[in-house]
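Convert to structure. Protein one:
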Amino acid sequence: MICLASGPALVMLLTGGISLSWDHSVEKIRWTEYYRAEAGLLHLVEARVQGSGAGMEAPPGARLEQGSWRWRPDLRLERVTLASSEFTGDYTLCPDSGPCRPLGHWLPAGHSVTLTACEVAEVD
């Protein structure tokens, strides 16, 4: 499962994977990352960007598919912190198990949000 936390609020998404998208504040280019919860970490499986500029260049080895540069970073992270900005609008979060929604659907907008892989203890 993947957890979203903002201050005292915690939301557990009943899914093992999400895609997270946002628009760059200057270039207004769409950026998307796909994460899987694995072994207590967030595994960044794939990233894609619809163009380049202002620090959003695709790395070597990226391939252009359907108008987006795609690559596989293969990073494992303890947490991902999403900063809130009046210049970018809300993030879009798409769980594997449900429809895409703005991040503000789960937590109040205007605060930073931390994503983690959350573990749930089994009940006997």
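Protein two, convert as well:
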Amino acid sequence: MDSPQHVLDGYEIARALKELPSWRERMGTLVCAWSFATSREAVDFLAIVAEAAEHLGHHPDVDWRWNTIFLTTTSHDVGGEVTPRDIELATLLEFAAADSGAIAVPHRHQDVTLAIDAQDPAKLEAFWSATMGYRKGRDGDLVDPERRNPPLWFQETPTPNANRFHIDKLVARSEFDAAREKMLPVAGEGDSTHAPSWVVYTDPDGNRMCLCAEPEVPGETFDA
């Protein structure tokens, strides 16, 4: 059995990503998205992804949507972190995508997190872990072992909102202002105290949605 891989820190990831313009770091993973002229070309690229994964013995999560391929890679054997094998796979696919005429659209990777405001998160974790079949993640959140459904995290606060369930929507920082513009007609300006990191919107019943920009520095966290 291979020995565990070295977990890359924020600086190492940022340095590697300078050579990987199609990729972004998101909460212990590397993500990218490539768009193709046709659905057929996207499917053909899936075969290239499969070949690269088999060659390296490291398999990304893949989501095919018409003419776009979304990819996520992380090293599960070290708890869902970025390791050299993720960089190696990303590098191989970066070159393959360029040769395939793909257009990088990493900003289309949108991440959703379900959040519960709580005075004592520890009292809630066992219930939600058991009922959802989730496990503890890298940052203390609860995650779907199959990585198909949104993670669940508990925001510790001494003054939780009466309606404690809210959604965190994480978008590319380059798309943050455009996303806010789209929110204006239905949600107004929101609470922009912490912009441009995040803005909090509240519906008529008090439910909240936090629009969050991806961190400028890999490993940086937000507290929406």
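The longest strand covers residues 111-118. The mean pLDDT is 87.
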